[in-house]
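Hey team,

Sharing the FAD-dependent oxidoreductase run so nobody has to redo it. Sequence (455 residues) first:
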Amino acid sequence: MSGERHDGRIVVVGASLAGLRAAETLRDEGFTGSLTMVGEEPHPPYDRPPLSKGVLLGRVSAQDAGLPSRRDIDAQWKLGVRARGIDPVAKQVLLDDGEQLPFDRLLIATGTRARAWPESAEAALDGVLTLRTRDDADRLAERLDAGPRRVLVIGAGFTGSEIASACRERGLEVTVAERGPAPLVGALGGTLGAFAARLQRAHGVDLRCGVTVTALNGDNGRLTGAEFSDGSRIDADVAVVALGAVRNTEWLAGSGLAAGPRGLACDAGCRAFDMYGIVTDDVFVAGDVARFPHPLFEYQMLSLEHWGNAVAQAEVAAHNMVSPGPLRRPHLTVPAFWSSQFGLNIKSVGVPTFSDQVVIAQGSLREGRLIAVYGYRGRVTAAVSVNRAKWLEHYQHLIETAAPFPPGPGAADLLDTGPPVSSDVPDPHHLSHGPTVALTGHLPDRRLTLVRQGD
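Structure output:
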C-alpha cells in the first residue's frame, strides 16, 4: 500500500454523520497525518432521525442525540464556523473567520439544510419553524410542550408526516398541507401515497392535498393562521415548513467543482468531478450532498438523504482517500431507509421511483401489513415494507441480482391478481417537497401499475 497516502493533511468539511464516520475510517485504515473537522453548527456530530421522532414526543432530549464515537479520531475541531470556499490552486479551504486551511486531500460532507419558507417576512413570524438541526428540534419540542391550539405542517414528505404523527400522538390538532396528490407520493408513488393519506385521516389529521399555502398570517409578529390556494383558511399558532432539503453547495461556487442545487457530482469511488466532468484525485464527497452513479439504476446520478447511505459512502470515501488506485472500491450499497409514523414502521430498499410497475407481493393495503415490490422493465428495483420488515433482506437480494419482476412465488404470498390499476408518480419537479431519493439522470416511464390482491 502506498505509504504517502497515510500521512499529510486531510480536511473534512461537515461535522456530520458522514464526516465523523469518514474520519473514524481514515484512522482505522492507518491514516496518521493531521485531520481537521469543520462544522457550521456549534455542536459535535449528532444523530438526526430521533429529531423528528423521539425528541418531538418528549421521550429524549435533542441534547441526547449525539453520535457515539467508534474510536478517538485525534482531530482538530473547528465547530461553529462556516466554510465559504475552496482555493483549488493553493489547495486551501477558506473559512468565514478568515482562516485558510491547507489540505492534501479534502472530504466534502456538508449535507443539506431545511428549505426555508420563501416569504421572508412570513418566515420570520414567531411560530414558523423548520426541522433539520438539533436546535430546530429543541424549539419545536418546546412549542409542542406548550400545547398549541393547532399545528400546521407544510409538506407531507417523510419529515412532515413524522411531525404530524408526533402531534397526533401528543393529542394536538394538526393540519397538513401537501401540494401533491397524497403524502409520501414523491418517494413511494401513488399507491402507497393513497394508503398514507387514509392512514393520516384515520388518525385525525386534517390532511389537505392538492393545495398550497398562499400566505402565513400574523399579528404583532406572531403566527395566527394560514390561507390556502383553494380559498380556505385556518387558525394556527405553530407552522412547520417541511418542504424538503436544500443541498449545501453554494459555498463551492467558484471552486471549479461540479456542484449545484442537486449536489456535488462524483464517481462511484466518491471522487468529486470538476466542472468539466473530469474526476479529481484529491477532493472526495460523501453523504446527502453527493450525487453518484449506481449501476443497478442504469448509472443515473443518485442523491440520497438516508442515514445508512451517509455511513456507507463515508466509509468508501475514506478508504479511497488513503488507498492507491487498484485497491479502491466503489460505493454500490443498495439505498435503504426507514420511517416511523402513525404506529407503522415503513422500511424501503432500492429506489421506488425507478420503476414502471408496483405489486403488493405480501399482505394487503387493507390490513396495513404489506410489502410493495417495484419493477422497471421487468426487473425488481425496490421494495417497501409496512410492518413487515423481516422480508426486506430477501427483496434486497432480488434487487442486487436484477431478478425478474414481478417476483416469483417464493417471494410472494400470492400473485393471482386482477387487472392492473394505473397510478401516477408525480414528477418531483412539481412537488413542494423533494423525495429522499432523487434520480437526476434520464427518468423512466413515470407510470406505476399496481397489481392488487383483491383489497
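The first helix runs from residue 17 to 28.

Ping me if you want the raw files.
A.
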